């Protein structure tokens, strides 16, 4: 187990990168706490796999250093970094039995055979392949092969970290849930540093203590699920976490207030932004109140989503979503208010904090 530090990591796949757009990773500075369970969440193409491969040593970054417990490992091989990595698609030995596939990484490290046997059987149980130990991996289903890959990543208990790159993509939904809780249990038991890549927010929010959100080659926020929901540090996090995502409305700042179209909203603080910055107000659909009080709004349509309804409306010339309970009445001349504590202000897409 190790604390992993990424120090000013930049990476470009092509030669002669000129602008930020040429970098798959732009500037990543982050410390993964020893024994932490992290989810790395972000849309396809934002740089998640690139980042994992840089941590494990499969890829050499264009700039920056990687440290394990303060020791520079940037020039060490994958083998020397002692990291287990599970990929999105199975990486196994087809001609070996299921048992030998799992035993391989242990025998490679000269673990005594009785201990190999104990650990392999334990993991076989966990991945629900106990009955298939003697079968050749060849001919198994994609789902079973992926479980073997997962097992191979988990069988060693002396690794510095385990990196998972969307490992459950090909696993059926029920088994996904089972394996995820097993991973959580193993994490508690052995205290591995775990980084779990996913583009699925539910998966991230249930697995991890801390969620690291990536966007366009950068880490834009690290936080607990509640922090990501309540205080998105970047408008992207607001859109990406939650369903429907956060409403983002263009505003003008005026001291302790903001102007939206012809409406003025008072705040309990004065957000600061550089002159000329694009300023916006973020409010989650759950924290917009619709009724007879407040600012005028035009309701366009109402979508039923089980125990809740999403009201699609126009407010100050902008589209806005409002989430209400299924029994809510929406008056014809509806008006809205925003929960003051749930308002976030953004300048050039980044959240402007409250002073003090
Ligand atoms: P993610 O895993 O979040 O989907 P990736 O790390 O795979 O993102 O990709 C980040 C960016 O780098 C993307 O724009 C992708 O097209 C590019 N990229 C990834 N791998 C390569 C490669 N081998 N060669 C060139 N560009 C690549
Ligand atoms: Mg990827």
UniProtKB/TrEMBL annotation:
Where is this chain's protein located in or outside the cell?
A: Cell inner membrane
Instruction: Report the membrane topology from the UniProt record.
Output: Peripheral membrane protein
Q: Which UniProt keywords apply?
A: ATP-binding, Cell inner membrane, Cell membrane, Membrane, Nucleotide-binding, Transport
* PROSITE patterns assigned to the protein according to its UniProt record, in alphabetical order: ABC_TRANSPORTER_2
Give the GO cellular component terms, alphabetically.
Answer: ATP-binding cassette (ABC) transporter complex, substrate-binding subunit-containing
User: Which parts of the sequence belong to the ABC transporter domain?
Assistant: 4-241
- Specify the species: Rhizobium altiplani
Q: What protein is this chain from?
A: ABC transporter ATP-binding protein
Major location category of this protein: membrane
Q: SMART domains under this entry? A: AAA (SM00382)
Taxonomy-wise, where does this protein's organism fall, top ranks first? Bacteria, Pseudomonadati, Pseudomonadota, Alphaproteobacteria, Hyphomicrobiales
């Amino acid at each position: 187990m190790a604390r992993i530090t990424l120090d000013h990591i930049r990476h470009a796949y092509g030669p002669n990168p000129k602008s930020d757009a040429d970098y798959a990773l732009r500037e990543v500075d982050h410390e993964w706490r020893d024994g932490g369970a992290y989810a790395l969440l972000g849309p396809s193409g934002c740089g998640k796999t690139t980042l994992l491969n840089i941590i494990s040593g499969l890829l050499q970054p264009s700039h920056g250093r990687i440290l394990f417990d303060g020791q520079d490992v940037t020039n060490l091989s994958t083998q020397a970094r002692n990291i287990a990595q599970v990929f999105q698609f199975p990486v196994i030995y087809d001609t070996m039995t299921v048992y030998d596939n799992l035993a391989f990484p242990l025998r490679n490290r000269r673990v005594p055979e009785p201990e190999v046997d104990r650990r392999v059987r334990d993991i076989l149980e966990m991945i629900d392949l106990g009955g298939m130990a003697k079968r050749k991996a060849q001919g198994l289903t994609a789902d079973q092969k992926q479980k073997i890959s997962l097992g191979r990543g988990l069988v060693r208990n002396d690794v510095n970290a385990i990196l998972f790159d969307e490992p459950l993509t090909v696993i059926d939904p029920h088994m996904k849930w089972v394996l995820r809780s097993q991973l959580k249990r193993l994490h508690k038991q052995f205290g591995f540093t775990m980084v779990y890549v996913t583009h699925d927010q539910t998966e991230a929010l249930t697995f991890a203590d801390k969620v690291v959100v990536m966007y366009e080659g950068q880490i834009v926020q690290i936080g607990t699920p509640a922090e990501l929901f309540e205080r998105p540090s970047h408008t992207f996090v607001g859109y990406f976490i939650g369903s429907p995502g956060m409403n983002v409305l263009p505003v003008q700042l005026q001291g302790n207030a903001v102007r939206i179209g012809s409406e003025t909203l008072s705040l309990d603080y004065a957000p600061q932004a550089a002159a000329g910055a694009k300023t916006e107000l973020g409010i989650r659909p759950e924290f917009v109140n619709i009724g007879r009080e407040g600012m005028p709004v035009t309701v366009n349509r109402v979508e039923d989503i089980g125990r809740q309804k999403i009201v699609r409306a126009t407010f100050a010339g902008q589209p806005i979503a409002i989430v209400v309970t299924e029994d809510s009445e929406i008056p014809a001349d509806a008006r809205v208010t925003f929960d003051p504590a749930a308002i976030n202000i953004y300048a050039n897409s980044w959240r402007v904090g409250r002073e003090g």
